[in-house]
Amino acid sequence: MWNTVGLGVLAALLIICFTHWFWRWRNPKCNGVLPPGSMGFPLIGETLPLIIPSYSLDLHPFIKTRLQRYGPIFRTSIAGRQVVISADPELNNYLFTQEGRLVELYYLDTFAKIFFQEGESRTNQLGVVHKYIRSIFLNHFGAEKLKEKWLPQIEEFVNKTLSQWSSQAFVEVKRSASAMVLNFSAKQIIMSYDAENSSGSLSKAYTGIIEGLMSFPLNIPGTAYNKCLKNQKRIITMLRDILKKRRSSLEVYRGDFLDQISRDMDREKFLSEDFVVQLIFGGLFVTFETVSAVLALAFKLLSEHPLVLEELVAEHEAILKKRENPSSGLTWDEYKSMTFTLRVINETLRLGNVAPGLLRRALEDIPAKGFTIPKGWTIMLVTSALQLSPNTFKDPLEFNPWRWKELDSHVVSKNFMPFGGGMRQCAGAEYSRVFMATFFHVLFTKYRWGKAREWQISRNPVLGFGKGIHIKFSQKEV
Fold first, then answer.
1. What is the 3-state secondary structure (H, E, C) of 50-94?
2. What is the DSSP letter of 268?
3. Model pTM?
4. Strand 470-475 to 447-451 pairing
5. pLDDT band at 464 (very low <50, low <70, confident <90, very high)
6. Strand pairing class (458-459; 463-464)
């Protein structure tokens, strides 16, 4: 009898404790008024609805339904983290200016683990570290270097790539474009890297990492996350070996990115071997993922909008007609004259929204439009909602490159952030645009292309391409 009573009391206590814990989870402490929303179930929060794929270029239903229900600022929980999601342009732009004061750059656990954004060697620090990183990438991938050196090399590399693609029955563009951009970027960062003769394929390893980024961080053999970590270690080992070889032969001047940072290691204390390897690892990733996704999406959109394609082709054929020598290479002035091409790129970036938003963490309690974002909470600045807002972009789901002719530059700067915002604007933004514009120039002047298989896009909430974008390429008859 007493055993039964004891078990009953224990069960009652457990129920009370669980109920209290559940109530605390659903009603977090706040020195003010929390934004409206739901915290979902303990630990997993509302993660599952977020990763269910949708098959539209519209905002992911997880974000869109909550914006409609709660307004532009709401709270939730993702992967065990307390999160405030903001689609308010004024608040987002304000927070971009407050990095290092009210907020700091932040990543979800899987991303932070894969890209080493924790500990003393993390590459997302502010101050001297941030200035150095931005400076070295602009020095090697900024507009001046593109104008002086990289533009003809990009054109030559794209020519070679499309020639190879045209000899195949069809090409899966997302994966193949990833390899194209990554191999070119790796060659510029590490002059000694040769994709054709390398013992390990960087593009395959990075593709494996992408497939595991949105997975649960369960390091169990066979899981996507486990495979992701293995690919990460493979790349890090390769980059570390390359750095050590370069450091042992600094008397030979090569002038590439690795050469500069190897020499700077003797002058800057924060440039440890771990830091440099991690910086190159992350730098290679950001150079190719956006470009390859936008190129893949562009093929889909252009196939569905023949008038856009017609004007694009006309613009590039006009560039050839204006040349004294039609077979001469692309010039910087010709790139800058590609008005409609750059509008197509902007429109594809706007609709693509490769990632749903940018993450920050509150360093103190932050007043936000009558609410309070508690210290320590994650903030997701949903730039994708701004880029699909009918208040700024009429018929936002329509692929309409001509809209960019009329848009006010001030409005665009606050509502179009495909390469980040504030002091974290990507140093490789111009590099990405030049690469895409050059690819289109070679494609439209020398090749024909057509759909080889049915394709389907998805968001989970990151932009995906299902079984791929399969294209058949063939050279134009001269």
1. HHCCECCCCCCHHHHHHHHHHCCEEEEEECCEEEEEECCHHHHHH
2. -
3. 0.88
4. antiparallel
5. confident
6. antiparallel
